[in-house]
Amino acid sequence: MNQTLPTMKTYMKLSLKPSLLLLACILGFSACRKTETPIIEPTVTPVAPSEKGPVKGFFLLNEANMGSNKASLDYYDAESGKYFKNIFPSRNPNVVKELGDVGNDIKIYGNKLYAVINVSNLVMVMDVNTAKQIGVISIPNCRYITFDKGNAYVSSYAGPVKIDLNARLGYIAKIDTASLAVKDTCVVGYQPEEMVIRDNKLYVANSGGYRIPNYDNTVSVVDLNTFKETKKITVGINLHHMKLDSDQNIYISSRGDYKTIPSNLYVLNSADKITNVLNIAASNMTISGDSLYVYSTEWSHITNSNTITYAIVNTKTKAIVSRSFIKDGTDKKITLPYGIAVHPETKDIFVTDARDYVTPGRLYCFTPDGIKKWDVETGDIPAHLVFTRKRLSGI
Amino acid sequence: MRYLRYAKLTAIVWLTSFTSSAFAQKVDTVKVHPLKEVSVLGDSIVREIIPVQTLSGKALKNLSAFSVADAIRYFSGVQIKDYGGIGGLKTVNVRSLGSQHVGFFYDGVQLGNAQNGVVDLGRFSMDNMMAISLYNGQKSAIFQSAKDFASASSIYLVSRTPEFLGSKRSNMMVSMKAGSFDVVNPSILWEQKLNDKLSSSFNAEYMNTSGKYKFREAKIGGYDTTEVRQNGDVYTLRLEGGLFGKVKDGEWKAKAYFYNSERGYPGASVKGVPGQFTNQDRQWDSNFFLQSSFKKKYSDLYSLQLKAKYAYDYLHYLSDPRLDVSTMYINNKFKQQEAYLSAANLFVILPFWTVNASTDFSWNSLDADLFGFVYPVRYSVFGALATSFDFNRLKIQGSLLGTFVHESTRIPSAAAGNKQKITPSLIASYQPFDTPDFSFRAFYKSSFRLPTFNDLYYTYIGNIYLKPEFSRQYNLGASYLHEFKHEKLKRFGLQVDAYFNQIDNKIIAAPGRGQYRWSMINRGYVEIRGVDVKLQSDWQVSSDVMINARAVYTYQKAQDFTDRASPYYGAQLDYIPWNSASLILNPSYKSWNLNYSFIYTGERYEAAAQIPENYADRWYTHDLGISKTFFYKKKEVRFTAEVNNLLNQQYDVVQNYPMPGTNFKFILHVIL
After folding, report:
1. Fewest CB atoms within 10 Å of the CB: A273, B230, B284, B469?
2. Across the interface, do B218 and A69 touch by the CB < 8 Å criterion?
3. Max CA-CA distance within chain A?
4. How do residues B53-72 score in pLDDT, each as one tens digit?
5. What does the alpha-carbon distance between residue B602 and residue B614 come to, in Å, rounded to a whole number?
6. What is the model's pLDDT at position B524?
7. What part of B 609-628 touches A (C-beta under 8 Å)?
């Protein structure tokens, strides 16, 4: 028999070498990639000269797109004039999956910083001095938070499930801010959003957003002594934001139905009566002193584009005193305004730009006269701002 | 505002998993060649003048692939988006043109999906598959229906045609797969020779899996967590029946196909309260189609090919707050129908010059119980004129495709306008030397994809003024393929292609129409530059030992040049890695067979901004399978054991959709 099995040498000669070499490279190289990824460090940008004062800075909560788990927390430090983007992971390396998915609201109460993380179904509670997690409050589909007398109140879309799954009420959860335990719940209207507390009563805007086109059009009033809903006030459809002014009026924004019914702004006085319908579209707003700063984004079918108005309403007279509080043309750079805030001391105006939702946003700081001071890159969908009187440690 | 974004994202994620419409069963080649068992590149005698990759026969059978999606990963220039697990959505993007630009053909007829334009490849099991081919541009056999000219790239899935050895009159095979994720997957195939001219086949497959697997996430110096993927269970049932006939100088086929499934959707793995509010969404699909084809050579000068199909697809998606209190209630049912007719005529004008004229007609409708839905219907007519010159060393093909689309809706004046477009393509190959082994090739092709029904009509988000997305491809390459007569190395092939692609009027979802309104708009211009390298070799080392090896490498720079003023002008597209590669080694010794495969996907970014938050690390997996064929009571039995992701790499293809670590599969296949 002439046939012999080829030797190893023959294999090599036949240039099996390249394939084996390739294989060896692959196996060796596959030892390189680890499952553990590095913790993301904050990006630090100097943006402004140093400022001293009772307000030490602010936290900005970036919502980020649903399913991305990229809700993030930024911090601006007035004393150093530096902006710190994405501070949570480095300060909380052991918190699984960082902040979470879709940040919806951020507030400070006492020594704690509360961030409502909507799609993660929790409120992240941090130490306001360090931004380190103290605990979480588990609330499904949580939306906004407000505080009164040692209690936190969180609105949630996830009310009791009844027969008609399309008509699911929301509720308010009452949480003890010391123990972070949910003490009680109160069923309100459909898909409740922002809240205001006045005269020992909690007012909440019921949007009814899940029930398109049958939006809710009420504000629920909850007595804080009994923690029961006492009445509903009819205001307008698809209500969203609520802000309290110095005269105990509540300004309530409606998003309209995006088709024929436009967005609008209502004033509810201390006697629970609607006193004004301001006929200005209101997407988001904030009150500082006697001024309500509001921006509105209106689609025009005529020009086939958005018209964005940056307005100021005098809360004493209820008159619209300005329709463009940004005076230097920077408003043309802002694609999609998403958040608005006014510095309690300096009255600087802050507006965020969510751009296209999938790229990092921008934060703009204006003087009270509407001239841009600085702007900086933020996380995805910058939205909610809260000023702090305690300087963050470790800066 | 959140619910609109939620609704849109939900729509996009689960509507993209809506499966295909009907497809005709037809072996899609002009020349009839027996598929060589050893071949890795398909039939080596056919030297295609367009870049093509094929996995067929033994190579396909040995590949440890659960579904067609797994097999396609080994091709160069492709990007599979895999949402994890067996039930997770899997879509293909070829040369970064976009997954809606890929045409899928099952036995020669397009798997359409007018609703969202993509086909979920995870649905197609490897059980009945004979060959999978990927053509960049279009198949360079001009005798094809008009729709074959209509996509930027085409993937052909060819199912088994009954073949009876010797005097056998029937074939019967059963197989059983089981393994990780609690997979139970029996199937049966029965082929019957009815007479010399007619045979039939019947194939049934059932699959059930819990879809559970562990995955781990960890940070250096931080948390380290291992979780289990929940609500990923899948049940599927597939029934296929076919009739195959021969006529003088021709053949015909008819196929009926039924697919039924139920699956859970685990959703993105985001932060939550441990053990609470886990995603409980579920989806039910039923797909049915009937397709047939007929091909006959009437004379040396004229051949005719006819195709027809009808398809019905039903999808039901449920997100139930009684199971998961945190969710928004969604309960939607979608029904799609498609009817399709095609006629292709091949004329041989001169021995070196053939012309094809084909026309296709298709009708698509969508019925959805969404609020304010307009119930669109689309009528499309396609006409293709193609010509092929074979000057021995120089081969040229040119084609012109005309597409005419008319849509109507139940609600008047809600339909998108008519569209008509003529798109050309030109393919050439030149053999510079005497040997046919080496050739240069080049092609130019323009094509487009229509806006889908979702793009146009989805309540609140659709935009009926959308224009089609337009693509242009330029390819230049060289191919060397040699068959050795008396060497141990039996065949060696190397193909290198460099390409430049452009996408215009890219359809994207963008906020814009008011604060909370999203809309689909045409605003996007993308340029893609890439190189595909494909290497293959087949060895007959001894009379008992054979080795097949194939390797591919792709380099791609796919950049968004939409907005010059944007800080992300020129950024690499989401999820497109710069480098990717794969390797398959398949030695066999007598009745033993070993298969090793390796896939590498380089680093990429999940969004335009190249910041650490969007960084996706490179990943690679090793799969190993061994099988033995033996006889038991005169029946041929083949047993296979596979271990996939051998080194337990933890990775996500799509951010927050973890992929399984090491997993196993055992297959028992018996020919009765």
Report:
1. A273
2. no
3. 111
4. 999 888 888 887 888 988 99
5. 14
6. 87
7. 609, 611-613, 617-620, 622
